[in-house]
Amino acid sequence: MSTPARKRLMRDFKRLCKDPPAGITGVPNDNDIMLWNAVIFGPDDSPWDGGE
């Protein structure tokens, strides 16, 4: 079943693959588009520099 939320997540995932923002990666779980794994790297020259 395709809900508005699932459609939105698929659209966001396609955009993330096509033009990913710097320092951010994310992919949905193989079996559930509502569950994601993401990594956000700390920006340079910030308290989070080098962090994940």
What does this protein look like?
This protein is an alpha+beta fold. It has one helix at residues 4-18; strands at residues 24-29, 32-40. The chain has a two-stranded antiparallel ribbon with strand order 1-2. The longest helix is centred in the N-terminal third of the chain and has 15 residues, at 4-18. 0% of the residues are buried. The model has no long low-confidence stretch (mean pLDDT 89). Residues 4-52 form the UBC core domain.
Oligomer: single chain
**Helix-strand category:** alpha+beta
Strand content: 25-35%
Mean pLDDT score: 89
Shape: elongated
Alpha plus pi helix count? 1
Uncertain residue ranges: none
Strand order of the largest sheet: 1-2
Helix content: 25-40%
Report the end-to-end length measured between terminal Cα atoms: 34 Å
Task: Please provide the ordered H/E string of secondary-structure elements.
Answer: HEE
Radius of gyration: 13 Å
User: What's the story with the biggest beta sheet?
Assistant: 2 strands, antiparallel
Number of strands: 2
